[in-house]
Automatic annotation (TrEMBL):
Pfam families listed in its UniProt record: GDT1 (PF01169)
Topology term for the membrane: Multi-pass membrane protein
Superkingdom: Bacteria
Keywords: Membrane, Transmembrane, Transmembrane helix
Residue spans crossing the bilayer: 34-57, 69-86, 160-179
Main location: membrane
Protein family according to the UniProt entry: Belongs to the GDT1 family.
GO cellular component, one term: membrane
UniProt cross-references to InterPro entries, sorted A to Z: GDT1-like
UniProt protein name: GDT1 family protein
Compartmental location: Membrane
GO molecular function terms listed in the Swiss-Prot or TrEMBL record: metal ion transmembrane transporter activity
Amino acid sequence: MSSFLFGFAAALLLTIGARDQLLVARLAQPLGVAILLAALVSAAITAVAMAIAGDAIAQLLPVAAQRMLVAIALVVAAVELLWPTRDRRPKEPTRSPFAAFVVLLARQWGDAARFLLFALAAATALPAHVAAGGAVGAALALAGGWALGEDLDALPLRVFRLVMGALVLITGVVMGLGVRGII
């Protein structure tokens, strides 16, 4: 159950203000429920794919290397969170839910939430629970973006992502130093 909760919390918190949530919010009015459905399906696919990848790689590594892999994934996720985004509003949406689905898959593939799901799946014995929690958490954040629509831009998302990035970075660095025996 804790694997599910960690995956849920990680995906929920790290999807807030992410490029995929902003895209869903900005396309909520022109595409309606179709963009929400595309977002939910893409969130499930990417959560499962990253959990499978994390588990598969972890199976090839000794325990110390698994922990270092998790630390590296956390640092990469933190860099993605701290990196400033210059996400432009779609000027002329194609009104194609499939095109939006493909863009969402591409954006989610390497975002901080999925890196953290990768790390959690590598660190735990229950990657299926991590994937399920991650899919539900990301879906909830994306549904929130869809419900807020254009009002999402009024929230202090950049500050939230900087705080989350700092927390994830500190966790990754401490974990990495612990694996190396420095602390």
